[in-house]
User: Fold this.
Amino acid sequence: MNSGIAAPPHLAIDQVVKRFAGGVHAAVGGVSLNIAKGEFFALLGPSGCGKTTLLRMLAGFESPDEGRILIDGADMKGVPPYARPVNMMFQSYALFPHMSVAENVGFGLKQEKLSRSQIESRVAAMLDLVKLAPHAGRKPAQLSGGERQRVALARALVKEPKLLLLDEPLAALDRKLREETRFELVRIQQRVGITFLVVTHDQEEALSMAQRVAVMNQGKIAQLGEPREVYEHPQSRFVAEFIGGVNLFDGCVIGHDGRHLTVSCADAEAMFAVEYPEGLAAGADVTLALRPEKIEVSMQKPQELPNRLSGTVRAVAFRGEASSCEVELPNGKLLRVTLSNTARAAPSLRAGDAVWLGFASSAPVVLKS
Assistant:
């Protein structure tokens, strides 16, 4: 029978504040978050934004000055790290160099005084999960960076915590291995069903792995949402600039027809039609955010698009799957444009080419702050 009483969130962070002596601002300034059981969640932000401090408070290595941290409804105040249903995977991996892979993974279980058969069974299952069973007898120095990362993950998971904290888990890997490991982490998280909370400064990493992302800035949450929502609909200039490439235009609202704003942007010397059903009063100052991949480039003036700008290509950089272009407007403003490389032929654009840029009215986002 349903009592009608909602279950508490798996992890509840309630108005948590942390200050350090000499700091101008609180390292963490009143953060509140609810994270569901089995969720893959990311804290994303630049160095010094408070994300690692928050992670250390969850692990019990730091104590909040204000607020509460609850796991399954239990307040963690005064609970030491070893007594929390939490494990942490450190950026450095912190493997014991003199121990084998199997011994590293089973170390925590040995500390808990489990029997040898229990330890061997759980370690074998975990090494199978991370695809390292053939390397059970090797030492960390005999492994690649990606293999050491998986040993650290297995060691963190083998104790079956309710919550796994990952501090910049892919930072030590090269680009190709990072991309491969992202999918591995998601696969493993889905398989074990444990709540993962990852801290990272890498926006691509957070967007590709997490179900929800909290973007942090100066100790506070600047925006919280699903990856696509945060990327496509940033709520502030900070979020727009921190996550992905963006072109920003400062403008003034001229009018509203019930569905579109007409915005005059002096920095582009242009008038833009912007989809915005809510409406804004004429005279309101706004900032528009336009992602580089939303812009179309052509040699002829695009008649079918409502927003058009002429410019000159200043640089083209080939990036493999896409090319980045820098286009200068007549007034000197530079815009970034991303072109998908769908054909094997060399891109037709060259520095010095006169081009037209066009974008739909739905492409720009009106920033709220």
